[in-house]
Design a protein that fits this description.
heterodimer; A: 314 residues; mainly alpha; MetI-like fold; 13 helices; 0% strand; flat; B: 345 residues; alpha/beta; Rossmann fold; eight-stranded mixed β-sheet; four-stranded antiparallel β-sheet; 14 helices; 12 strands; globular
Chain lengths: 314, 345
């Protein structure tokens, strides 16, 4: 197992290099001049602009710029500075926390709601409850986050507040602790909840058809034990895999949700970074996201071996 | 109404002169999209302590469905039991509450399945699965349950049981897995053991060992055994009585000796003749002509008539009753006398 983890981590290096180079090149190819974008409407002295360009190596070819960037990260832990002079690491530290909070709230909501609905549907298979749950997941999958975000913001944030007189779900900012994350967390988790519900249902229904479930019944085990212990333990394998891999997707998908709910996370920052063509910020965030994906996938693969004894890594 | 406990019920039944287990005129049907499938149509057989009844028949004959009805592990719906009784010590299991039924299952009547790899749970150790019987039904601690599991694995002769108790099913060979299945089923000394094609998935040498083990365990504990199989070779060695099933009915039941000496039903006769024989090497293997009946569209009269070399006109119209040939023997054939004499037309 240990050797497997090391091998996987070594494999991650070319993935990280490739991903950063790719993003670096895309931002490089964006039209417009970042230095002039920084200056805004105001006309600046070309000499000053030239100095700034020189300072940030903006006149060098792509690969040379990339070389400066990547060696800075590896040898000095320096992800570069923003145009305003703040180190990217410092800028992102606080914002990463916001996004991580959001993703974890979303993941928790997803796990609880998805599993409960999925199990409920599976145990009532073919009946009205099952059909209703399946139909609502289909609805949730079909409507984009952009729509659910604004609609829920209006209904639960604004109208509900007007109806009951107090604010239950804050609609913007991350200043009220866990409360601020509930609504955006749900919006972010929306489609994932629907997918996990369906996956849980299918997985359990499939598992309950297995021969070993019949064996457990023949052993005189109660229905509750047959489903809850023998069935669920097996059905859990694809569910956990999906949940783990989804953590990365949730962090990456936070761009829209954070923008709608004005949460100061890396998603919002990525949006602003692309808007201002601040290469170090964009590449820095993407690097973090790629890392999160790689680590999340590695953890999922480890969990897989823990959950299913038939899988062993050499 | 006062709820009678299972043990009182079973004890009351035990006083009468009932066999250990009696299946009486059992009917099982399945509601499918294509229509009603009558899988079992009036099957009766009985089992006494220490006795082995072999239920013989091809796929779809209803032999496994009957066994699952006895265990109470049919999915209902789609399955339904419109008629019949399954009496255990004289008590009809079909009228017991689900709770009482669960008390019988595994503890009094246990079952071994065909493919032990899929019948054992892949994510729990074999020790966990065997000891579950003791933990759940006997309230034992984990540690004591594991000790019992090792004892049982020793009893079914799994080498190095103590070292292997924490292994998972996929780490064992096919024969060893079936031994684990057996250890699990006999854990609580059941009075009836149903073995549903226990050796079908194994190779021949291992088959013999497993059958030997079952016979030995049966001698020790005097349990009754229902052996479901389509393998006539297995039957001859271990069974006392044979019930041959075809199209959801019993077409012949008799002692092993009677059947092997001279079958009294054309289907049994066909089965016996289709066993490969060394002295007929090089000749074409005998096979019963035609296909097993379609349960959705059963032939009229005797279900076997489209394939039967003894067929007369009344076979197409009249369902043959189970004729009594001797005290131990019945045949559901209008022309059982001709079959018995070997007078083939």
């Amino acid at each position: 197992m240990g050797r497997y983890v090391i091998r996987r981590l070594i494999q991650a290096i070319p993935v990280l290099l490739g991903a950063t180079l790719f993003i670096f090149a895309i931002v490089f190819a964006l039209p417009g001049d970042p230095v002039e974008a920084l200056a805004g409407e105001k006309r600046q002295d070309p000499a000053i602009l030239a100095v700034i360009r020189e300072q940030y190596h903006l006149n060098d070819p792509l690969l040379v710029q990339y070389w400066h960037y990547i060696t800075g990260i590896i040898f000095e832990g320096d992800f570069g500075k923003t145009f305003a002079g703040v180190p990217v690491t410092e800028l992102l530290a606080g914002k990463l926390q916001v996004t991580l909070n959001l993703a974890l709230v979303a993941l928790t909501l997803e796990a609880i709601i998805g599993v409960v609905l999925g199990l409920w549907a599976a145990l009532r298979r073919g009946r009205a409850t099952d059909t209703a749950i399946l139909a609502s997941t289909l609805l949730l999958i079909s409507v984009p986050t952009l729509v659910t975000g604004f609609v829920l913001q209006l209904w639960l944030g604004v109208w509900l507040k007007q109806a009951v007189g107090t604010e239950i779900f804050p609609i913007a900012g991350a200043t009220q602790g866990l409360k601020s994350y509930l609504l955006p967390g749900f919006v972010l988790a929306g489609t994932s909840i629907a997918y996990l519900t369906r996956l849980t249902r299918t997985s359990l229904v499939e598992t309950l058809r297995s021969d070993y479930i019949r064996t457990a019944t023949a052993k005189g085990m109660s229905r509750r034990r047959v489903v809850g212990r023998h069935g669920l333990r097996n059905a859990l394998i694809p569910m956990v895999t999906y949940l783990g891999a989804d953590l990365g997707a949730l962090m990456g998908g936070a761009v829209i949700t954070e923008t709608i709910f004005n949460l100061p996370g890396i998603g919002k920052q990525l949006y602003d970074g692309v808007y201002l063509r601040e290469q170090p910020i964009v590449v820095g965030i993407v690097t973090i996201l790629v890392l999160v994906y790689i680590v999340a996938n590695l953890i999922v693969d480890m969990l897989y071996a823990v959950l299913d004894p038939r899988i062993r890594y050499e | 109404m006062r709820k009678t406990s299972l043990d009182t019920l079973l004890a009351e039944g035990g006083r009468s002169n009932e066999p250990l287990l009696a299946v009486d005129n059992l009917h099982v049907e399945f509601a499918t999209r294509a229509g009603l499938v009558r899988a079992v149509n009036g099957v009766s057989y009985s089992l006494n302590p220490g006795e082995t009844v072999a239920v013989l028949g091809e796929s779809g004959s209803g032999k496994s469905v009957t066994a699952q009805a006895i265990m109470g592990i049919l999915d209902m719906p789609p399955a339904r039991i419109p008629k019949g009784e399954i009496r255990f010590h004289g008590t009809d299991l079909l009228r017991l509450s689900e709770e009482a039924r669960t008390q019988v299952r595994g503890q009094r009547i246990a079952m071994i399945f065909q493919d032990a790899l899929s019948a054992l749970n892949p994510v729990f150790t074999v020790g966990w699965q065997i000891s579950e019987m003791f933990r759940v039904h006997r309230g034992m601690s984990k540690r004591d349950g594991m000790k019992k599991a090792v004892e049982l694995m020793d009893k079914v002769r799994i080498p190095a049981a103590k070292q292997r108790v924490n292994d998972y099913p996929h780490q064992f060979s096919g024969g060893m897995r079936q031994r684990i299945m057996i250890a699990m089923s006999i854990a609580l000394d059941p009075e009836v053991l149903i073995a549903d094609e226990p050796t079908t998935a194994l190779d021949v040498t291992v088959q013999a060992q497993i059958m030997e083990l079952l016979a030995e365990l049966q001698r020790e504990s005097n349990m009754g055994m229902i052996l479901i199989t389509h393998d006539l070779g297995v039957v001859a060695d271990v069974a006392d009585k044979i019930a041959v099933m075809y199209g959801g009915r019993i077409v012949e039941n008799a002692t092993v000796h009677e059947i092997y000496k001279s079958p009294a039903h054309p289907y049994t006769k066909g089965l016996l003749e289709s066993i490969p024989r060394v002295d007929l090497k090089g000749q074409e293997l005998y096979a019963i002509k035609g296909l097993p009946p379609n349960l959705l569209d059963m032939p009229t009269g005797c279900a076997f008539h489209p394939r039967c070399p003894y067929r007369q006109d009344n076979c197409v119209t009249d369902v043959p009753p189970l004729h009594e040939i001797s005290g131990t023997r019945n045949s559901a054939c209008h022309y059982w006398r001709e079959v018995l004499d070997g007078d083939q037309r």
